[in-house]
C-alpha cells in the first residue's frame, strides 16, 4: 500500500510542481503579459532541483501553460513515503486574480489510494522577466507533512 501510494504521489507531485510554474509567469509589456516561454528551476526537498521550461498563452484572465520538467527533484511525503519525480511534462490552466493582475492561482484535486489530495498553486510576477511560484500539496493527515514545491523562472528571449 505504501509503495502504491508513493508511486501515485510522485505522479501527483509532478503535476503540482509543473502546474505551480504554469500559473506564475513574468509579465511583458503587451495586452497579454503572461504569454511567452520561460526557463528556470523547481526546488524540492533535501536541496534537490530540476530544470523546467514553460510555455504560456494568455486569453483574457485565463492562462494555459505546458511545463516540461527534467530529472533531479525529490519530494518527501512523510509517513506516506518519498521519492524522485521523473522527468515529464504537464498542461494546466489557471486564472489571473481580479485584485492583483500579477497573481495567478489554481486548485486541483486527486483521488489517490482512496484519499483526496488537494493542490493549491500560487504564482507571482516579481518583475517583467521573473516569476516565483509555490505549490502546496495537501496530503492526508496520516502522512504527517504537506510538501511545498517552489519554482523560479526567467523569460526566454526568442
The count of β-strands is 10
Termini separation comes to 47 Å
Q: How many helices?
A: 1
Mean pLDDT: 79
Please tell me what the overall shape is. Answer: globular
Task: Indicate the CATH topology.
Answer: Lipocalin
Descriptive account of the structure:
It is a single chain. Residues 3-8 and 14-29 have low confidence and may be disordered. The chain has 158 residues and is mainly beta. It contains one helix and ten strands; from the N terminus they run αββββββββββ. It has an eight-stranded antiparallel beta barrel. It has one domain (2-155): Quinohemoprotein amine dehydrogenase alpha subunit, domain 2 (Lipocalin, Beta Barrel), CATH 2.40.128.120. The chain has one helix spanning 2-22; strands at 36-43, 49-59, 62-69, 74-76, 82-84, 88-96, 103-112, 115-127, 130-138, 148-155. Strand 8 and strand 9 (130-138) form a beta hairpin.
Amino acid at each position: 500500500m505504501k509503495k502504491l501510494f508513493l508511486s501515485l504521489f510522485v505522479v501527483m507531485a509532478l503535476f503540482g510542481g509543473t502546474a505551480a510554474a504554469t500559473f506564475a509567469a513574468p509579465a511583458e509589456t503587451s495586452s497579454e503579459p503572461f504569454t511567452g516561454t520561460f526557463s528556470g528551476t523547481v526546488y524540492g526537498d533535501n536541496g534537490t532541483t530540476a530544470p523546467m521550461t514553460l510555455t504560456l498563452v494568455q486569453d483574457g484572465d485565463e492562462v494555459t501553460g505546458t511545463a516540461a520538467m527534467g530529472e533531479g527533484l525529490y519530494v518527501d511525503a512523510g509517513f506516506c513515503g518519498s521519492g524522485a519525480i521523473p522527468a515529464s511534462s504537464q498542461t494546466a490552466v489557471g486564472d489571473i486574480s481580479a485584485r492583483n493582475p500579477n497573481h495567478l492561482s489554481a486548485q486541483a484535486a486527486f483521488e489517490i489510494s482512496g484519499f483526496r489530495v488537494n493542490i493549491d498553486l500560487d504564482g507571482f510576477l516579481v518583475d517583467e522577466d521573473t516569476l516565483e511560484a509555490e505549490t502546496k500539496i495537501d496530503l492526508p493527515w496520516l502522512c504527517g507533512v504537506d510538501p511545498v514545491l517552489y519554482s523560479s523562472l526567467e523569460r526566454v528571449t526568442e
